[in-house]
Amino acid sequence: MHADTQVNDLPLDSPYVELAVEVFAMLADATRVRIILALRDGELAVGELATAVGKSPTAVSQHLAKLRLARMVTTRHDGNRVYYTLADEHARRLVVDAVLQAEHAIDSHPRHHGRADA
Known about the structure:
Radius of gyration: 16 Å
Number of strands: 3
Oligomer: single chain
Largest sheet: 3 strands, antiparallel
Distance between the termini: 36 Å
CATH superfamily: Winged helix-like DNA-binding domain superfamily/Winged helix DNA-binding domain
Number of helices: 6
Protein name: ArsR family transcriptional regulator
InterPro entries: ArsR-like_HTH (IPR011991), HTH_ArsR_DNA-bd_dom (IPR001845), Metal_resp_trans_reg (IPR051011), WH-like_DNA-bd_sf (IPR036388), WH_DNA-bd_sf (IPR036390)
Mean pLDDT: 88
Low-confidence stretches: none
CATH topology: Arc Repressor Mutant, subunit A
Shape: globular
GO molecular function: DNA binding; DNA-binding transcription factor activity
Domain HTH arsR-type: 12-106
Pfam family, one: HTH_5
Strand order of the largest sheet: 1-3-2
Number of domains: 1
């Protein structure tokens, strides 16, 4: 069964609605959104993520801890290094879709709709 069909059958009083709100709350932070975007192509270590999102490794580690608790990222240890990856495709899709929706708020002809000047 396709995920969209499953969602269309989801009752309004589903307990998953409350959990979905928690997912959105977790993503209501620009650094965490940037971390998800940085991880969309594969795993990265904290230092690489810090460079990618323009934050200190300590700050990125704190955000990653929250994302781990929310089960949005997983880790792999290699010696002293810890690599992070997205736990599944859903967080990436949520963030990418949110960014695409944001383009609509700014531009009447968003880039993802194939603007002539893009």
